[in-house]
Amino acid sequence: MTETMSTPSEYDAAAVGALVAKQQITEVLYRRARAGDRRDVELALACYHPGATEEHEGFSGTAAEFIRNVSMISPNSTAPVIGLWHLISNILIELSGDEASVESYHLAVVIGDDDSGETQSSIGGRYLDKFAFRDGRWAITHREVVFDWSRVDAATTPYWELVGLDEAKLLRGRFGPDDPLYHQLDVTRGQ
Amino acid sequence: MTLARPVAELLARHEIEQLLTRRGRAADSKDPDAILREHVPGSLDTHGIYDGTIEEFVEYLRTHNYQDKRYGPQRHTISNVLIEFDSDSRARVESYHLAYHRIVLDPVAYDVYIGGRYLDRCEQVGGRWQLSSRQVVYDWSRSTPVSNPTTLESE
After folding, report:
1. Which of A91, A100, A139, B31 could make an S-S bridge to A131, C-beta 3.0–4.6 Å?
2. Domain A8-157+169-178 falls under CATH 3.40.50.300
3. Cα–Cα distance between B86 and B107 in angstroms, integer?
4. Do B103 and A120 touch (CB under 8 A)?
5. At B63, phi and psi to the nearest 5?
6. What domains can you pick out in chain B, each with its CATH number?
7. How many residue pairs from chains A and B have C-beta atoms closer than 8 A?
8. What chain B residue is nearest to A118 in terms of C-alpha separation?
9. b/e map of B59-83 (b: 16 or more CB within 10 Å)?
10. What residue in A sits closest to B65 (Cα-Cα)?
C-alpha cells in the first residue's frame, strides 16, 4: 500500500471494524444479485442464515423455499425468462452490534421470451434487509422486496445491430455455468 | 508496516473500485491517454469492437470511434463490484455497468442503453492497481429514437 497509509491503531478500532462489516454486507448484496442473474441456487442460499425469511412478490415464507421453489432462479420455475440483470446501488447500512438494517436500491431488467416475442421489463425497487453476524459471517436473516416502478417494452434493435458490430464476436451473458464469468474469469459457482 | 488482513483487503477493494470508476471516466471523456494509464502495458482488452492489446484498442478508438460522427456522448455507471484476490497484488473482478450511448444515424438518432459486465484481471504494479485484462459481457441493450434531438449535442 502507499506510504501515506496509517496503521489501524491510529484510528478508532470500532470505526474500522464497522467499515469492514459494511464492506462484507455490501458483498453479500452483490453476491445475491449475481446468484439470481446466473441462476446459482447454492450461491443464493449462501447469502442467508438458516431459517431466514423473505417477502417477495406476494410470497411470504422462508428464503430457502422462495429460492428453491418459487423464484425465477428455481429449477422449477416456468417463467418465460431468458435473462436477468440486477444493478445494486444506494446501499445504506445501520449497524447495531452484530445486527444490521440495510436498504439498497435495485434496477432490474428481465428479458422475457414467450409466444408474443421478446420483451424487456425494467423494474426499480428496493431491498429492505435484516442482516446478522453469526458463525463468522454476515448474512441475511430477513428480506423484503419493495417495487417502486416498472415498465414492460417490446425488444428493440440491439446496440450491436445498430452500430454494425458482429454479435458472434461479443461475449453474451447467460444463465448457468455457460456464462463468461465462469469460463473467462474462473469464478466458482455456489461460492 | 503490516495491516490486519481485513483492513488491507478493504483498502485494496477501495482502490480497485476507484480504478474501475477512473476507467469509466476515461472512456466517457474519450481520452485515450487516460484510458492507457489504467491498464498494464500490452494487456488485452476484449470489447467486441476491437480485440487486441490496449494500445491497439486505444489507437483504434483514436482513429475510428472518436472520428466517427455516429458516436455521440456516452456514460458508464459502474456497480456490483465483486473481487476475488489471488494474492495481495492480483485480483479477479466482476463489475456491472449501465452504459448510455447517443448513436446518431441518418435520419434517426438513438438513445441506447446497454446493461453489461466487465470481467477484469487486476494487478498492483508499483503500488497502483491496474487492469491486466478486460473482457466486456453484454447482457441486454435497448435503443429508442431520441425524444428531442436538440436537447443534447451529438458531438
Report:
1. A100
2. no
3. 50
4. no
5. -95, -20
6. 5-151 (3.10.450.50)
7. 125
8. B140
9. ebbeeebeeeebbbebebebbbbbb
10. A163
The structural domains of chain A, with segments of one domain joined by +, span 8-157+169-178
Burial A135-159 (b: 16+ CB within 10 A, else e): eeebbbbbbebeeeeeeeeeebebb
Checking DSSP bridges between strand B71-87 and strand B90-104, what pairing results, if any?
Answer: antiparallel
C-beta atoms of A85 and B139 within 8 A: yes
- The pLDDT confidence band at residue B149, using thresholds 50, 70 and 90, is low
Q: Is the dihedral of CA B59, B62, B64, B66 positive or negative?
A: positive
For A21, residues 6+ apart whose C-beta sits below 8 A from its C-beta are: A93, A95, A100, A133, A138
Q: How large is the average pLDDT for residues B80-107?
A: 96
Q: Chain B closest CA to A15's CA: distance in Å?
A: 11
Residue A155 grid cell: 425488444
Q: Do A171 and B4 lie within an 8 Å CB cutoff?
A: no
**B84-97 confidence digits (pLDDT tens):** 999 999 999 999 99
CB atoms within 10 A of CB A109: 21
Low-confidence ranges of chain A (pLDDT < 50): 1-3
Per-residue pLDDT band at B148 (split at 50, 70, 90): confident
C-alpha cell at B146: 431520441
Can you tell me whether residue A80 is helix, strand or coil?
Answer: coil
In A34-116, the DSSP E strands lie at 48-56, 59-62, 81-96, 99-114
Task: Tell me the chain A residues in contact with residue B49 when contact means C-beta distances shorter than 8 Å.
Answer: 165
Residues of B in contact with A7 (CB under 8 A): 1, 3
